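User: Hey, quick favor. My workstation is busy. Could you predict this chain's structure for me?
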Amino acid sequence: MSQSSNLFSSIISVNPYRNIYFTSSGQHIAEEKKPLFSKTQYAISFINTKSFITAMVGVSKNIPEEDLYDALENKVYDELALDMAVEYKIQFIEATHATDDSDKYYHVFIVDPITLEEDFKGVVEQINYLDQIVPIPLLFQALYKRELIHDTGLHIFIYFQENDASLTIYDDQNFLYTKSLKYSFRQMHERFVELIGEQIGYEQFLASISENGIGLPNPEYQKYLIKLFGELFLHINDVLTYAKRAFEIESVDHVYIGSLIGSITGLDEYAQTYLGLPSSLFDFNYGFTVEGNRPDQIHALMHLFAQLDATERYNCNFTEYHRPPPFVKRQSGKIIMLTAASLVGAMLYPVTYWTLQYTEDMHFNILSNEYRELHNQKVEREALINIKLADQKRYETLYNDELQEYQKSKNTLLKIHDVKVNYPMKAKQLAYFTNDFNRYDVNIKEISYQEPSVTQRSFLFTLVAKDDKQLTDLLKYLTTNRSKSYDFSMDKITFAEKEALYTSELKAVLR
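Assistant: No problem, here it is.
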């Protein structure tokens, strides 16, 4: 687990490949020409993409946490056919985008220990210790944690250095894939010299690109530079094609392009045209106040990454150059402190014994007095509680009697209300219906009233008429004029020959 940089007053970032150092304190950053070791300074560096191997490895979800490293190590050696004679340095982070029912997947980073020793030998000689060495693609996590990039889509970061170039993919703000590109600035310079057929110094080549971007004033040089970048982006396109197929990538939301010399004018437009993807220069406002030479983007990212809490950033640290623990945590320090404590304890034992005895006697007397006071309070309060309990029982009896009287009164009032409200309502409705029946010279033979519930009320009329048209006209009238209050239905009309009358049942259901 990486130490938190919050425990230190400043941060120093190291580019081990160019021997460049930058220090920051708060939001102030400056190049350090003569770096020295400091106990209060947190040191962070990075590993180039071409210096490590990366792969995604799956292991069973049932493997305990304490056995996870061994399981991943065994699988990496087996699947990647690593040399069993070499004790590779292995670190891993969880692959949040890949999982299934039985396995859990991890991005594994593998570094040859000789590579670590060769790359960081000069750094350790200069500042003694390195608290953290991070694979360069993981530094981009700081852009999301510090909300310099708010989007959660799929982003590609292309970065050119002196002896390396890399393409890194983040999906939903999590690391997905990285690949070293074959076009570092050194390789660009060699290819450019090969194309133009004449010798141009490396520094002159860099200065020309830094000043003019991809639009060189010399037309002949310009032609070959465009050819060079065409080859470069053809290679990038091949890498992207592989990544899209391997990780089932359907679309890319944005491409960020940067370099150690800063923004290369026109490179983002060229990338957008060639790759057909939204592109912009890798140029973020990190909020640092810069003194002297401006740090390249990787130095700025290292400072942002180091400022993150240890729980927020990827736990992937390849350093072998830890500072010694504090004196109290060393074995020698623990022995010395234990010996000193034993001597002091032996000398102070008699005094401590008598002091403790006197203190305990005083404590006993104080507690005895407190007990007597509390016991008296307890007796008084128990008597008061008994009185209150008796009062409570008496009040409960009175309450129950009153509640029974209340229920009797309530039931009586409900009956009175039902007689006063419901019966006049039914008589009133029957009067309306009688008027309507008389309008069509229809007589009532029988009436019934049903009320299964408060919301379900209906009348059933047995009607007789001399003509069936009287019954149908009545039904038509009722459904037209009284349908807001009732639903009407008349199933059938029967004819009695003996009486020469038509009979039907009309049902009126209250809405």
